[in-house]
Amino acid sequence: MSTILVTGGTGTLGRLVVERLRADGHEVRVLSRHAQPYAVDLREGGGALDAAVSGVDTIVHCASSPKGDEQAAAHLIRAARGAGVAHLVHISIVGVDRVPFRYYRSKLAVERLIEESGIGWSVLRATQFHDLLVMLLQVLSKLPVLLLPAGVRDQPVEVDEVADRLAGLAAGAPAGRVEDMGGPEVRTLESLARAYLKATGRRRAVVNVPLWGAAYRGFRDGGHLAPRQAVGTGTFEEYLARRYGGGGPARKGSERSTS
């Protein structure tokens, strides 16, 4: 079996990839800012990163942050080339080339760095994880009125299924850009928000608000969706049931919507 380094190996996705690779018999190194013995901030690089990738056959790059992704990827690629890494697997996001959102632009730039690295590579784009959607709805529901961008849909995918796909790619030969991976359903944000409110027993009015700007138009037009690659099987309601155990009953007023 091979030696595989997983960046962001303590995160939501990375830790699941680590579990699967170890279960399959691979030697796995976990790299994150605080995970010993490979505690590395990729944005800084340096000798600790060189030591982490020494003797590694494959890297699965799951680490990401709102700032510094391109710099982190450049440091990782430099170290990987120096260590003779044969395969670099990267998780990206559906729509990074269609939605002019700042974070998406950065993810697309990272893809291009990997493609031009001279290292064998595989890139998987996935739609948003259920966990991320819930994080967004938690923030939005802090107000008495839950405000949503009008006309936007989403296609959340189960992170466990993405981890399975990444682990499979890491165990294989470089495959280039593989088919996108989307969740089983394309849903309006309102329907997803209502499912979340029901599962958590919260009472909120739901208001759809038209926004402006190129990024909003990209999301409204579905640039972040992959309806033809709806290969995921876990639904948002199934995720909510596992996380909240069914939540409280919907209370009077929780179904009110204003568009």
UniProtKB/TrEMBL annotation:
Residues annotated as domain NAD(P)-binding: 8-131
A GO MF label: protein-containing complex binding
Gene3D superfamilies to which the protein is assigned, alphabetical: NAD(P)-binding Rossmann-like Domain (3.40.50.720)
Domain of life where this protein originates: Bacteria
Listed PANTHER family: NADH DEHYDROGENASE [UBIQUINONE] 1 ALPHA SUBCOMPLEX SUBUNIT 9, MITOCHONDRIAL, NADH-UBIQUINONE OXIDOREDUCTASE 39 KDA SUBUNIT-RELATED
Protein name per its UniProtKB record: dTDP-4-dehydrorhamnose reductase
Organism: Streptomyces viridochromogenes (strain DSM 40736 / JCM 4977 / BCRC 1201 / Tue 494)
